[in-house]
Write a structure and sequence with these properties.
3 domains, Immunoglobulin-like, Jelly Rolls, 11% helix, five-stranded antiparallel sheet, mainly beta, 3 helices, six-stranded mixed sheet
């Protein structure tokens, strides 16, 4: 929209309208119908886009449309254009989640779940599959908080990998109380949050018998069980080798009678225990459990 510069009879002065001067007899500018209609249509276009019905009785509809909720639409997540940013877009960009929902059964997520915080509930195990990684941009994030009474698997679609603490896996497991932010980074899903800690080399462990647990300090706990041979010896191979050294071991036997246990050999890879019964005789076929500490 512009002044009617192309209409000579409009009587513009320096490209603008002027009033009539009765003293000098200078006529005022004329407003061509095309220009007046154009200005009106420009304003009505904004009013209608704002969801309002034009009314001759109202002189505040243009302002109402500009302040309304329909004229400015929230851009899609990760929009990098120069479109106006609504309050909704700004709040989302500041790190707030775009929405939240809960799941309690096997679920296939989609691009519509990007930016959501998802609560994992229920009483039995199931799998939540991440969206097709090609359908979301780099930086796409989905938050998870597990409050389920069973372990929940977060899996990738197809051959995509998920990477907690630098590992490359097809899925991870979340237990009750754990949280995870899963972020797309150049073709893989990376994992941040407490759910990733068990995959870190400093915190890795094996929940089994035998098993082990690494601690941030560098200390390592290991445990397991074995059966004594005819010589009363229980030969133990630790689940993992202690990288630097061994310093303590506690062992007990299973049974209703007293027994004596002795540690007769040990190194960073394992140890040998010897069990004798209450009479001091070497005891065969006795089940022995151990707990070892090292670093």
């Amino acid at each position: 929209m512009d002044y009617p510069n192309s209409v000579p009879s409009a009587g513009l002065v320096n490209g603008r309208f002027v009033d009539e001067d009765l003293i000098t007899g200078k006529p005022g500018s004329l407003i061509p119908a095309s220009w007046g209609n154009g200005v009106t249509q420009e304003i009505l276009g904004v009013v209608r886009a704002g969801g309002l019905t034009p009314s001759e009785a109202s002189n505040t509809q243009l302002l109402g449309a500009l302040r309304g909720s329909q004229l400015f639409q929230t851009a899609a997540p990760f929009d990098v254009s120069r479109s106006a940013a609504t309050s909704e877009f700004v709040q989302r960009a500041l790190g707030n989640y775009a929405g939240a929902r809960g799941v309690s059964a096997a679920t296939q997520l989609t691009a519509a779940d990007v930016g959501c915080s998802i609560g994992l509930g229920g009483n039995s195990s199931y799998t939540v599959t991440l969206p097709d990684i090609l359908s979301v941009p780099n930086g796409a994030t989905i938050g998870f908080h597990c409050r389920s009474n069973a372990a929940i698997t977060i899996a990738c679609l197809g051959s995509t990998q998920i990477s907690p603490q630098g590992a490359y896996l097809s899925s991870i497991v979340m237990n009750s109380g754990e949280s995870a932010n899963v972020v797309k980074e150049n073709g893989i899903w990376t994992v941040h949050g407490t759910a990733s800690l068990k995959y870190a080399p400093l915190f890795s462990g094996l929940v089994a018998n035998p098993g082990y647990q690494k601690h941030l300090s560098g200390n390592i706990d290991q445990w397991g069980s074995g059966m004594s041979n005819a010589g009363g010896n229980v030969v133990v191979t630790f689940p993992i080798s202690f990288p630097r050294g061994f310093f303590s071991l506690v062992a007990t036997h299973a049974g209703g009678d007293a027994a004596m246990l002795a540690l007769i050999a040990v190194n960073q890879q394992g140890c040998t225990l010897r069990i004798r019964d209450a009479a001091g005789s070497l005891a065969a076929n006795c089940s022995v459990s151990y707990f070892a500490k090292g670093y």
